[in-house]
Structure formats: structure tokens, C-alpha cells
Design brief:
Order of helices and strands: EEHEHHHEHEH
Distance between the termini: 12 Å
Oligomer: single chain
CATH architecture: 3-Layer(aba) Sandwich
Structural class: alpha/beta
CATH topology: Rossmann fold
Shape: globular
Helix content: 25-40%
CATH class: Alpha Beta
Number of strands: 5
Number of domains: 1
Radius of gyration: 15 Å
């Protein structure tokens, strides 16, 4: 892939956690600013999708791939309860590259990002630029209700068997196929 790709990580994760991607570590208090205007494709995972949708400069990218976004807009307390259930389920992996001292900053940033309605922003950016990828086993964040909302709004959705919310190498393969197809 010769395109300029930027990756936005999920909550409390670093870009390095995802492998061979480049992008800003948005959940770290010492985040370095990055020029996103050169991106032909932006990939985001989990709460990183909501961060992306809340930023005007990201809307200029050619393609946007949202993997297991937090949909639809819910209040922060509901998301924190879902996150707690997710963490207690044992499905979550810890990213050693994003130390726990970043937690207060990441928590603050999540509350700011959660003010934006992601479905509204998808419509504003343009449904033709966006593909949503969902692991069918994601019962915490991008659940069946989220799928129903996406389908009602005719947003391009790809569902993946045997995957949940947590990042998996199979998402890498699917992302490559989506980029090549567009």
C-alpha cells in the first residue's frame, strides 16, 4: 500500500499497539501533533473513531475506516459502565506502551470526545467516504443496536465473524482489502 495512512488508536492504546501503522497517540498527555491533511486514508479503532469524528481536519481524508466505533451517542456514564463490563469480561488487552499515568488525561479526553454525536458527524463528512467495520462478537460498544442504526442510515458496514471489540490481526487483512477496493 503506497497510500499515506494514519491510524487513530482506541482508548488507552498507543499506535504502536496496532503494529505497522503511523499516527498520533491521542490518549497520551505528551501527544505529538501530526499533519493529517496528507492522509489518503485514516483508520480508527474504538473510541479513536469518535475522536476522529470530532476533529474537523480529519474530515479532509480521502477514505475513513472506523473499526468498532462507539455508537450511537450515549452519555459518558453508560460508556464507562460498558467499559467496566468489557474489562471484567477478560476480553481487553493492556497496552504497555501507554502507561497508567496517562489515565487521567485519557479519561478527560474521552469525556470531551463523547460530546459529539458520531452518526451526525458521519452524515456531515459523507457516507461515501466512510466504511464501518464491526466484529460480530462486539457486545459492548458497537453492538446489534449500533448495527441497526448504521443500517437505517445506509452507512457502509462490514461485519466480521469470530471477532469482538479488541483489535486482531484479521482486522489488518480486512483493512488492506477495503483500501485496495476503494
Amino acid at each position: 500500500m503506497s497510500e499515506k495512512i494514519i491510524f487513530i488508536p482506541g482508548w488507552m492504546k498507543s499506535v504502536a499497539f496496532y503494529g505497522n501503522y503511523a499516527g498520533p497517540d491521542i490518549w497520551q498527555s505528551r501527544e505529538k501533533k501530526q499533519d493529517v491533511s496528507v492522509a489518503s486514508c485514516i483508520i480508527a479503532h474504538s473510541a479513536g473513531c469518535n475522536y476522529l469524528l470530532a476533529q474537523d481536519e480529519f474530515a479532509r481524508a480521502g477514505k475513513i475506516i472506523l473499526i468498532n466505533p462507539l455508537l450511537p451517542k450515549r452519555n459518558s456514564f453508560v460508556w464507562m459502565c460498558r467499559w467496566l463490563r468489557y474489562a471484567l469480561s477478560g476480553a481487553m488487552t493492556y497496552d504497555r506502551m501507554n502507561p497508567l499515568w496517562n489515565f487521567p488525561y485519557a479519561f478527560y479526553k474521552f469525556f470531551k470526545v463523547n460530546d459529539v454525536d458520531p452518526l451526525e458527524m458521519i452524515e456531515k463528512i459523507g457516507k461515501d467516504k466512510i466504511t464501518v467495520v464491526r466484529g460480530i462478537q462486539d457486545h459492548f460498544f458497537c453492538d446489534n443496536y449500533s448495527v441497526k442504526m448504521l443500517q437505517e442510515k445506509n452507512i457502509n458496514l462490514v461485519e466480521v465473524e469470530n471477532l469482538g471489540h479488541e483489535w486482531d490481526e484479521k482486522y489488518d487483512d480486512l483493512v488492506k482489502k477495503i483500501i485496495e477496493k476503494k
